[in-house]
Design brief:
alpha/beta, 10 helices, 17 strands
């Protein structure tokens, strides 16, 4: 974030809070497109950050929703349903029936089990609406179908009720190993070919979750230019030719986010310096944080070139010894009232924390739009209220 933006925000809004920069987000989409093979589509998993959906939707081909709440968010914000992929390992009958009956414009539904396939087919027949499906191929966990189940479906499905667009495959996130990526693509490549050769099923689309890694910490060594170049070669060299869609969350939105928290107390206990901030681990988590032993990218505001540099343990305001954001972090002339800006917090940080611990408010969400206007996407939310039942 620019210093003038931080200054404006601190003048007008209380901390802690999140800030998502839409220009950075759109530049990120453009960067990925420039490094990926021509014709590859992008599908955004909105669980990574629901607050940027409206701005991101026009820039990508698809949005993946995995819950009724995410679907309602899309409906209430006027998202183009032709881009929506309805996914999720658990799809309730009421939820799916309502979509099939009332929102026939959705792009497709993923199939995670034989039961889901039968349910979707039943509703398609009930409402005489042909729906599109993606069959999720399991990577060896609770998600998706195994090979034999997929073979059974493509051999027997009712072509008048449903259209099977192809196969979806996702195996995890933060994958830095291109050898692993190659192994996965080789496996999917062979399976797609087998389905066509042995079962007469032509997969028009292959949706793949590459799990692109994000460098969150100052010790991360990752050359994204080289990584994406090699990845693109692997995608382009697949023998089976289908429309490629990459389902991405973290890699799309991580860079656009900042979490701002203020120092509210300073102390020294038994030779260790502690800075207490008004936020904490209930608001911010990084993939692989390792109890704050790694230092995420961050900046101090105001920045001071002069002054004593001391190592500080940055601790949140929760009543647990686990609430440590960074350990032994060098900072120059740290003062109460200073702001610490944690960078690359655009993905999951605002959703994966233990948000309700100690009934602290959920932080406010701000967006910086393309014209650098600061917009409130959500006010701070109180969490202490419960029904007074006796």
């Amino acid at each position: 974030m620019k210093n003038n933006q931080i200054e404006r925000i601190l003048q007008d809004y209380p901390t802690p809070l999140y800030v998502f920069d839409i220009n950075i987000l759109k530049n990120r989409v453009a960067y990925l497109r420039s490094r990926l093979p021509k014709g590859v589509s992008l599908c955004y998993a909105i669980k990574a950050n629901t607050f940027v959906v409206n701005d991101l939707c026009p820039k990508i081909e698809k949005l993946e929703v995995c819950s009724p709440g995410e679907m309602m968010l899309c409906l209430e914000n006027g998202v183009d349903l032709s881009k929506v992929v309805v996914s999720g390992v658990y799809k309730t009958r009421d939820f799916i029936e309502k979509i099939v009956e009332e929102h026939s414009g959705v792009n497709c539904f993923t199939v995670e089990s034989i039961q889901q396939y039968e349910m979707l087919t039943d509703f398609a027949k009930k409402y005489s609406k042909k729906i599109s499906l993606l069959l999720r191929l399991t990577s060896g966990n609770q998600f998706g179908l195994d090979e034999e189940e997929i073979k059974k479906i493509v051999s027997t499905y009712d072509k008048d009720a449903v259209q099977i667009n192809g196969i979806q495959y996702f195996s995890g996130t933060q994958k830095t190993s291109l050898k692993r990526i190659k192994k996965e693509l080789d496996y999917a490549d062979a399976f797609l070919s087998e389905l066509e050769q042995n079962y007469g099923f032509k997969s028009d689309e292959f949706e793949y979750g590459p799990g692109f890694p994000v460098a969150y910490f100052d010790t991360d060594k990752f050359n994204e230019e080289e990584y994406l170049a090699e990845f693109s070669d692997l995608i382009s060299s697949m023998n089976y030719k289908a429309k490629i869609t990459l389902e991405i969350g973290r890699s799309l939105v991580a860079d656009c986010g900042n979490y701002i928290t203020k120092v509210v107390d300073l102390k020294s206990n038994k030779g260790q310096n502690y800075a207490i901030v008004d936020g904490g681990m209930n608001h911010i988590t990084y993939f692989g944080q390792s109890m704050a032993m790694k230092h995420p990218f961050h900046k101090l505001y105001p920045e001071r070139a002069d002054g004593d540099v001391l190592n500080w343990n940055i601790c949140g305001s929760l009543c647990t010894v686990n609430d440590i954001l960074m350990k032994n972090t060098p900072m120059s002339d740290l003062k109460i009232g200073d702001a610490i800006v944690f960078e690359k917090t655009g993905a999951y940080c605002m959703t994966e924390g233990i948000s309700l611990f100690l009934s602290r408010d959920l932080p406010q969400i701000l967006l910086i739009d393309e014209n650098e206007n600061i917009i409130s996407a959500r006010e701070a939310v109180e969490t202490y209220k419960i029904n007074n039942v006796k």
